[in-house]
Amino acid sequence: xxxxxxxxxxxxxxxxxxxxxxxxxxxxxxxxxxxxxxxxxxxxxxxxxxxxxxxxxxxxxxxxxxxxxxxxxxxxxxxxxxxxxxxxxxxxxxxxxxxxxxxxxxxxxxxxxxxxxxxxxxxxxxxxxxxxxxxxxxxxxxxxxxxxxxxxxxxxxxxxxxxxxxxxxxxxxxxxxxxxxxxxxxxxxxxxxxxxxxxxxxxxxxxxxxxxxxxxxxxxxxxxxxxxxxxxxxxxxxxxxxxxxxxxxxxxxxxxxxxxxxxxxxxxxxxxxxxxxxxxxxxxxxxxxxxxxxxxxxxxxxxxxxxxxxxxxxxxxxxxxxxxxxxxxxxxxxxxxxxxxxxxxxxxxxxxxxxxxxxxxxxxxxxxxxxxxxxxx
Length: 377
Ligand code: OAD
Hints:
Elements: H1 22-30, E1 37-41, H2 61-65, H3 79-84, H4 87-96, H5 105-115, E2 119-124, H6 130-133, E3 141-143, E4 146-153, H7 162-170, E5 184-188, H8 197-202, H9 204-208, E6 211-215, E7 221-222, E8 237-241, E9 254-258, H10 261-272, H11 275-286, H12 288-296, H13 298-325, H14 332-343, H15 348-354, E10 360-361
Parallel strand pairs: 1-2, 1-6, 2-3, 6-8, 8-9
Antiparallel strand pairs: 4-5, 7-10
Helix pairs in contact: 1-10, 4-13, 5-11, 11-12
The structure holds 2'-O-acetyl adenosine-5-diphosphoribose.
């Protein structure tokens, strides 16, 4: 069994759990007291599937795009930049488009919670649709940053046909509106765009949950990053992540499971007596070959290859744009937007005070803490 630790002093007793550990979380679930489990996920739950996350120092998309002639790597997901030059986004979309990746055991664990009637709501920041592929019912999912499932013109908002979108994305070509010739963009949320109304309609469910599981997210993008803080202090929160993030680990019933989330999830499944069922469901869904590939960790190499290919391709289109337009620097509109971006509230407190409506990144850092990694499976 791996180890789970909290940053609160050992003398501070948990209010709800018998102790700050995964077996205690499992006992809490088995006792029937956790009837409403809220799950909050980010890119880290899909890295084992071969999809790069955004901010990991070596394999993250932004870390690698930082080497290019972009003012900020996040620009690829900003509307002003997209209006100026949509091609880099479509280069990324070609490789990240749902279809070629398979769910991880963490995705399947979330579905297991759903089949056992325990999943209250899943809030995901991911656009890879892997939770749906794992079987999680659509009405239990809030895709907080949208998804590739639909697309529309950014000017007249007319929806664009799925089959034509798929064709364009497969060739990394930019689709244009059939009515007004405007640019077409998938309904994924770019920086400074509003989140889907469903996020705001269901946000209260993170407050009503009796257990909050946070997996694979750096909690740097608001308002999503504020969700774990909606839970009352006595509600256990469990973090499955490579590193400590947000305020996780600061409350008496917080359990930090630091390390890769698939390992942590397997440990929780063991403690619950669900492990066999979980592994069987996962293998049935993805097949033995893919399961073995993920288990061997060969996807790490794939992520490295994927990200270096992506960066190479984006670099190429940035330079094409450079030649055709005479410049790759942002338009005046984009520059103004960027300036606004830098001056918009970025701390969690400020965002909460000002009532967030759109995606903002935060530059919060976590306080020093005792960190212990999960080990083995
Ligand atoms: P990030 O890349 O910011 O964070 C991923 C987190 O998962 C990091 O803390 C990693 O250490 C951790 N991680 C990576 N692999 C892991 C693994 N196998 N097991 C456990 N932890 C792992 O991704 P997000 O938090 O999802 O938004 O990013 C949030 C948003 O930023 C995205 O939705 C996207 C991006 O800009 C938009 O595009 C609007």
